[in-house]
Every structure is written in structure tokens, then in C-alpha cells.
Write a structure and sequence with these properties.
Layout lengths: L14 E2 L24 E6 L3 H5 L1 H10 L7 E5 L5 H10 L4 E7 L2 E7 L2 E4 L7 H8 L5 E4 L20 H8 L7 H14 L6 E4 L6 H16 L1 H10 L5 E4 L7 H9 L2 E2 L4 E3 L4 E4 L16 E2 L3 H25 L5 H6 L1 H15 L11 H12 L8 H5 L2 H19 L4 H13 L17 H11 L4 H4 L2 H4 L6 H17 L1 H10 L1
Parallel strand pairs: 1-10, 2-3, 2-7, 3-6, 4-11, 7-8, 12-13
Antiparallel strand pairs: 4-5, 9-12
Helix pairs in contact: 4-6, 5-7, 6-7, 7-8, 10-12, 10-13, 10-15, 10-16, 12-21, 15-16, 16-20, 16-21, 20-21
Length: about 500
């Protein structure tokens, strides 16, 4: 990335971001060198937030800077009413994005231009369906969060009973979900003999391509079994591991873009690290991602297990105790010696032993890298953002390590403490008495059980849709109940001290 160091004390003047003003950007800020008017769309991306723009869209932008993949431009899409505001912001600046890299040695900025349009956000998703039915679209990619794939967290199976799924099965031509819209578009493509597209998940899910396949085929089967068979046979769903820490955008991020002289209503900040490991399974072709730094590998599973268990699991280890103690940022959590020691001990003793090495790095070396990234003081990633949707994230990132530890007869007490910290967090009150605003799609239910668990800790583990049969796993259940009782009686720091020194 070409560098221009931000100077918050200097008035650089402001340039409103847009195609017509790219040449007016301050010297030193990298910008598209390709003719954006010549780009044509090859990808529709659903769930267009900060992570996508700092990750997949950046890789594509780097290819375009090399004069490649000019027929793979991105059209953004959303299926939630709230996505309309993002659409308005991005269309007003010709879908350009200022990417600001937050390196401890200094900040730098570039303008990315791989996205060329954002579809109207509509009930029934007619515009989205029509765009995905266009044969020029060869990839439909998604970032819809870990919990957005209608998966039962206890079984890993498809949640056919969800009201959104029931709606889409009954009304396949006017779907409510991204997956229903993809199915409707694939029906049009099949009937017109336009061929399939690749479904590419860019979410933090183990086997994310397999999960997307399960959701799409299972939903299609509820209304059109023949179409479901066609999708299963013709479409491809590559698994991938994605990695880049990308904080949410707020007033300070907008002000940071302005310090570079850019008036951007939706800038993105990110760390100085990216990784993307992808299976080469694209039924309708793909950009040469590897020429922009992605890794094409048949061993995605090993990469994703390391990342999901150590990094994503590590995020959950530190976010909940930090939130309870009123620590607002991830770097602030890492500055707390007990929280940092909690991460190190749990990951070394109870997670890393069940993770295989990948080419170039061992699990313990990866833990050291992750700890360094978490501690980056320039990344203003909030503990609240990381703690969001714990019901999906604990189930997906931490409980697999619990099960593997139990199967191996290995320690699980630290992981039990992490679950107890989540239960304590879900009571909705910090140790200073301040209220935790709802922070999970199932917050009301979680809070009710968390309050019951203050006097009956085992009640928390009876949430079988999250914990499955772990309530019957005595080493884990006994440790959990002991830790939760201690958290409520003596507080977070006392519990962390006992674990770290034990």
C-alpha cells in the first residue's frame, strides 16, 4: 500500500470521494490506476460491510491494479432494510472506499475501486434476483455473519423451522433471505440454460462453503426438489479461510479519513495483516486470486481450524471478561495482565494441542502472532463488537475445542471458565453496575437463563441448542459450575487469578 502518513494536526483540505475527484486526492494516496468506466460485473456480493471491502474487494482491486480481472467487478447487495443506508452512502461516492491501514509504525491510506454498483434493497429482492440471474455473474459471495446461515448450532444441521426459511419455502418467488434470492436466481438460470454460479462464503465458519451448500440445497428442496438436485450437481461452493481484523466505522474513522484529506462517508480501517486461503472449486471461473496474495489450497480445513480456534476463539476468550470489567477495546483487553494471561494459558493448554500445524507456522507461533495483532493499539476494535452473537461464536469457535479436549482426556477447565464468563456477561450488568445493552440475536433468552444460573449454574449448560450434551460431561460441567459461582461471589479478577496461578 502506498503510504501517506496521517497528520491530525495539519489541515490537508478535503476532497469529496468520487470518480471525478480521484485525480484531486492528496499526493501519496494510492488510487485506481485502471479505467473504472471499463469495468464489468462478475460478482454479486451480499452483506456488503467493512470486512468485505477490506478483504475480498481489496484482493480484487489489487488484481485490477495489475490490469487483470477487469470483468470481475463487484455489485453490492443487501437483504435487510438497514442496508439501504449503506447503499446510499456508497452510491454517493461512486462505490469507492478509503481503506486505512492501522500499522503501529504509522497509518496509511488507499482508495479501492473494485465495486461498481449497489442494488436497491427491496422486499421480495426482485432486483437482486434479476442481477444474479444475469449470466455475466459467475460468483455470488456473502458476508452475512457466522450465525446467518440458518444452522442449528448444536447439531450443525439445517434449521428448516426458522420463520424466514418457512417464508421462503412457501414464497420462493419473493424470498426474504439471501439464500432464497440465490435459489430464485438459479431457477431462472437453469430454466434459461444460462448455467450455474459459484456460491462463495467469506464468513468465519469452519467449512463455510459446505455450510452454504447445505443451506442453499436444503432450502431449495423444501419447494423444488428437482432444482435442489440441479444446484447440488451444477453449483460449486469453495471452502475458504478469511482473516483480517476490521473494526466498525464510526465518527473517529470518518475523522481519520478526513485527516488524510478525504471526505468519505464510509471509510474502512483495518490491521496490517490479511489472509485468504481458498479451495479451487469454481464452476464458472474465478479471478486469479493467488496473483493478489491469496493462497489456493486443498488443505483449507487445516488453515481454518487454526484460525477459528485460536484467533476467533481467542477473541471470545478476551472479549467477555473485558466487557464485564468495562474495558472497551481489544487492545485494552490485551493490556490487562490477567486477561492476556487467560488467553495465553487457555490457548496453549486447551486449544493448541488439538490444532494441526499448517505450512509455515505452528499453532503456538500462530498464537504469538494473534496476540501481537490483538495488542495493536492502533486498532480500535471494540470488545462489544467482538462479543456480539456469542451464542453462535462460542458454539462455533470454542466448544469444538471442549469436545476434543474431553475426547482426549485433556484439560478443559479454562474453556469452562470462558463459558462461565460468557454466562456472567449475559446477565446484562458489568461489575461497576452499568448495564450491558443487548448484544446477541437471542439476548432476552440468554439473559433469562444467565440470571437463573446465578443460583443454579447448571441451568446455563441445559441450553442444548448451544451446548448439546456437554451438561453430561462431568469434567467440563463441574468446572463450569464452580467457575460461575466464583465469578458471582468474588468477581472476574479473582477467578482469572485463580485460573492463571492454578
Amino acid at each position: 500500500m502506498d503510504e501517506l502518513m496521517a497528520d491530525g494536526g495539519q489541515n490537508l483540505g478535503l476532497t469529496a470521494l468520487g470518480n471525478a475527484t480521484l485525480a484531486e486526492l492528496p499526493d501519496g494516496i494510492a488510487r485506481p490506476t485502471y479505467d473504472r468506466s471499463k469495468l464489468t460485473a462478475g460478482i454479486v456480493h451480499i452483506g456488503l460491510g467493512n470486512f468485505h471491502r477490506a478483504h475480498q474487494a481489496w484482493y480484487l482491486h489489487r488484481l485490477m491494479q495489475q490490469g487483470k480481472a477487469l470483468d470481475w467487478a463487484i455489485i453490492g447487495a443487501g437483504v435487510r432494510a438497514a442496508d439501504s443506508a449503506q447503499r446510499d452512502r456508497l452510491l454517493a461516492q461512486d462505490c469507492l472506499t478509503t481503506l486505512i491501514e492501522l500499522d503501529p509504525s504509522g497509518k496509511s491510506a488507499e482508495v479501492s475501486g473494485a465495486m461498481i454498483d449497489f442494488l436497491p434493497v427491496q422486499e421480495g429482492n426482485a432486483a437482486l434476483i434479476a442481477q444474479m440471474a444475469d449470466p455475466a455473474i459467475r460468483i455470488v459471495s456473502l458476508t452475512v455473519t457466522e450465525g446467518g446461515y440458518y444452522v442449528d448450532p448444536a447439531t450443525g444441521g439445517f434449521d428448516a423451522d426458522h420463520e424466514d426459511i418457512q417464508h421462503d419455502a412457501a414464497h420462493p418467488e419473493t424470498p426474504r433471505t439471501a439464500f432464497g434470492a440465490m435459489i430464485a436466481a438459479l431457477r431462472l438460470r437453469r430454466d434459461a440454460k444460462r448455467g450455474p454460479f459459484t456460491g462463495q462464503s467469506c464468513d468465519n465458519l469452519q467449512g463455510n462453503g459446505d455450510v452454504l451448500r447445505q443451506t442453499l440445497v436444503s432450502l431449495a428442496r423444501m419447494s423444488d426438489p428437482d432444482l435442489a438436485d440441479w444446484i447440488a450437481a451444477q453449483c460449486s461452493f469453495p471452502n475458504a479461510m478469511v482473516d483480517c481484523i476490521v473494526p466498525a466505522t464510526g465518527p473517529s474513522e470518518i475523522a481519520l479519513a478526513r485527516s488524510f484529506g478525504i471526505d468519505d462517508a464510509a471509510p474502512v480501517t483495518h490491521e496490517n495483516f490479511r489472509q485468504w486461503v481458498i479451495e479451487d472449486d469454481f464452476c464458472a471461473g474465478r479471478p486469479p486470486w493467488e496473483e493478489a496474495g491469496a493462497t489456493i489450497s486443498s488443505a483449507v480445513h487445516d488453515y481454518e481450524v487454526m484460525k477459528l480456534r485460536v484467533l476467533n476463539g481467542g477473541h471470545q476468550i478476551i472479549a467477555d471478561p473485558a466487557e464485564i470489567l468495562g474495558i472497551e477495546t481489544i487492545s485494552g483487553a490485551m493490556a490487562h495482565p490477567l486477561i492476556r494471561a487467560l488467553l495465553d494459558k487457555v490457548a496453549r493448554d486447551e486449544i493448541a494441542p488439538h490444532v494441526a500445524a499448517v505450512p509455515g507456522i505452528t499453532p503456538l507461533a500462530y498464537l504469538d502472532l494473534v496476540a501481537s495483532r490483538f495488542a495493536n493499539p492502533e486498532i480500535k476494535d471494540t470488545t462489544r463488537r467482538v462479543a456480539f452473537d456469542g451464542s453462535s461464536r462460542h458454539a462455533g469457535f470454542l466448544l469444538p475445542s471442549v469436545r476434543e479436549g474431553l475426547a482426549a482426556g485433556a484439560p478443559v477447565s479454562g474453556l469452562a471458565l470462558v463459558s462461565a464468563l460468557w454466562a456472567r456477561y449475559c446477565t446484562g450488568q458489568r461489575e461497576d453496575g452499568s448495564v450491558v445493552a443487548p448484544n446477541d440475536p437471542a439476548w432476552d433468552d440468554l439473559q433469562q437463563v444467565a440470571l437463573q444460573a446465578k443460583s443454579d449454574p447448571a441451568a446455563w449448560l441445559e441450553m442444548r441448542h448451544i451446548y448439546g450434551d456437554l451438561a453430561e460431561a462431568k469434567p467440563f460441567a463441574d468446572a463450569f459450575c464452580s467457575w460461575l459461582s466464583l465469578l458471582h461471589s468474588d468477581g472476574v479478577e479473582a477467578a482469572l487469578t485463580r485460573y492463571v496461578q492454578g
